[in-house]
Write a structure and sequence with these properties.
This protein is mainly alpha-helical and 564 residues long. The chain has a single domain, classed as MetI-like (MetI-like fold, Orthogonal Bundle), CATH 1.10.3720.10. It has 26 helices and no strands.
């Protein structure tokens, strides 16, 4: 039987009078449970056991904003004068233009890639599933440097093309270089949650649309794409906020954005009040992005409305589109992974005999993996109450908590690090210069990375399943452990995997907040690049990619086991 799928705002029909003398005991029990849980027709009231941890997480996410307010207090006249300069508004325009271009292109790349590797008979799907995610493991500052070396004027590519008469390639510096690099290394933020959402979709609606005479394209646009909207928007939020706060890549490619202006105020002008004011404008821009996201996001039901068991869909045959699909995947992987790895391999060959530094890779690799695992676990734990509140109790409070949770992702890493130092020295003395404070900073920055896919998966779980478990005597924590978490596992794994990946390559926070002698692969790569030892940097960067590939393969294998 075809299943109903309707907007959540569609009025629920009032219950009809019973045709029998009275409802049975089980029906009365279910109705009482619905009233207690705030069911249809009544405003849902979130329990304090959920509100309190979610509010605490949101308050912790706002610590960097509190630091900025403290820094700018008493200097509003100087800050206002800086903000109203024409140059400041020009920089803001360049920043928002880059954000819009990178986000739109990321969606255009990620949605068809997710569809191809999850729902079609694309040859080599397992390989493409891993390869299309791996660009996320390449640090943006490393990727931008490698592209300048490879495709910039007089770069490696120009040398290869010189026998053909090519004397100079287009300059990558400026908007187009920043747009290319940021798109290639951020589209997996959208790809992973969309892929997790596709794995959870029940194919019955799609099959019903096909049986009614709709073609594949019309079915995708009218049935599948609307159900992917939460995952697409959650990934697009991350890409937009990441691009807004990016510093390394845009600086390397000489494209002046807001983060560049903040850095100049911190480092060149030594004016932390002015830098704090600019960072507050960056926070306002982030809130504007979140507001636009809320405006675009409609409240739909993404779960089943009729009984049945979700099942994996049959792969869609590509037919004559197989070769264009393979060419599309190959082009994206070549640009996002092949070019950077090719340049790295070149520098490995050239610099393998630079010195005795191999023994340093062991501690740096262990530290990177350990701190990334701690950050992934801590971030997912912090995201659980926020995702549950937003998915099950939508309203003003949940919206406020969710928007506060995204603020840290839009603030430059140097500001987050200085805020943690400020509060660590004054209020958290025993935790200052410890791994715990470093992990806390990772959680503040990367919480949206886990929150997006987790919330999207939570929206796809029918709340009636949790309701029935409660009527059968399960306590709330048992319902969460035995019913909800197994159903949201794809989103949970996608979120944890993304946090693990981005923590591996995080640089500013690690440089400033790491304990003495605590080196990671990211800091080792940065130190080698700044010192000019490109062979060492290449080997360490390749090791970063290998560690990220192993984590992605583990996530994909566990997702496959769950789907089976």
């Amino acid at each position: 039987m075809a299943e109903a799928w309707s907007p959540a705002r569609t009025p629920v029909p009032a219950p009809q009078p019973a045709r029998r003398p009275g409802p049975g005991p089980r029906a009365g029990f279910l109705e009482a449970a619905r009233r207690k849980a705030g069911g249809p027709g009544q405003g849902p009231q979130p329990p304090l056991a959920l509100v309190v941890p979610a509010a605490l997480v949101a308050a912790a996410m706002l610590l960097p904003v509190a630091y900025l307010l403290i820094r700018t207090a008493g200097a509003w006249d100087r800050v206002a004068e800086l903000l109203f300069r024409p140059a400041t508004w020009a920089i803001a325009g360049r920043s928002l233009g880059l954000v819009a271009a990178v986000t739109a292109t990321g969606v255009i790349l990620a949605v068809p890639l997710a569809w191809l590797v999850v729902r079609t008979d694309l040859p080599g799907r397992r390989f493409w599933a891993v390869a299309t995610v791996l660009p996320l493991a390449i640090p943006s500052y490393v990727g931008s440097f490698l592209y300048v070396v490879a495709a910039g004027p007089h770069g490696l590519l120009q040398r290869l093309l010189a026998p053909l008469g090519v004397q100079r390639l287009p300059d990558l510096h400026g908007f187009w270089g920043a747009y290319l690099v940021m798109t290639l290394f951020t589209y997996p933020y959208i790809l992973l949650p969309v892929r997790a959402a596709l794995a959870r979709l029940d194919p019955a609606l799609e099959e019903a649309a096909l049986s009614l005479g709709r073609g594949r394209g019309a079915t995708f646009r009218s049935v599948i794409l609307p159900q992917l909207r939460p995952a697409i928007l959650s990934g697009a939020r991350l890409v937009a906020l990441y691009t807004l706060a990016e510093f390394g890549a845009v600086t390397t490619l000489r494209y002046e954005t807001f983060t560049w202006a903040i850095y100049v105020q911190y480092q060149a002008a030594f004016d932390r009040a002015a830098a704090g004011g600019l960072a507050l404008v960056l926070v306002a821009a982030a809130l504007a992005i979140l507001g636009l996201d809320a405006l675009l996001r409609e409240r739909w039901r993404y779960h089943r409305d009729t009984p049945g068991t979700p099942r994996p869909p049959a792969p869609v045959p590509l037919g004559p589109w197989r070769w264009p699909a393979l060419a599309f995947c190959a082009a994206v992987v070549l640009l996002g992974l092949g070019v950077p790895l090719g340049v790295l391999a070149y520098w490995v060959v050239r610099g393998v005999l630079e010195g005795s530094w191999w023994e340093l890779l062991g501690p740096a690799t262990f530290n990177s993996l350990a701190v990334a695992a701690l950050a992934a676990a801590g971030t997912v734990a912090a995201a659980l109450p926020v995702a549950a509140l937003g998915a099950r109790f939508p309203g003003f409070l949940s919206g406020l908590v969710e928007r506060a949770s995204y603020v840290g992702f839009a603030i430059p890493g140097i500001v987050i690090a200085l805020a943690m130092v400020f509060f660590g020295v004054r209020f958290l003395g025993p935790l200052y210069q410890t791994v715990a404070l470093l992990v806390a900073a990772y959680v503040i920055v990367f919480l949206p990375t886990a929150l997006g896919p987790l919330r999207a998966s939570w929206l796809q779980v029918d709340p009636k399943l949790e309701e029935v478990a409660r009527t059968l005597g399960r306590r709330p924590w048992q319902v969460l452990a035995q019913v909800t978490l197994p159903l949201v596992r794809p989103g949970l794994l996608a979120g944890a995997g993304m946090v693990f990946l981005v923590t591996l390559k995080e640089l500013p926070l690690t440089l400033i907040l790491s304990p003495a002698g605590f080196g990671t692969l990211a800091t080792s790569v940065w130190n080698s690049i700044t010192e000019g030892f490109f062979g060492q940097a290449a080997v360490k960067s390749l090791l970063l990619v290998a560690a990220s590939a192993a984590s992605v393969m583990l996530i994909l294998r566990r997702e496959g086991e769950w789907q089976a």
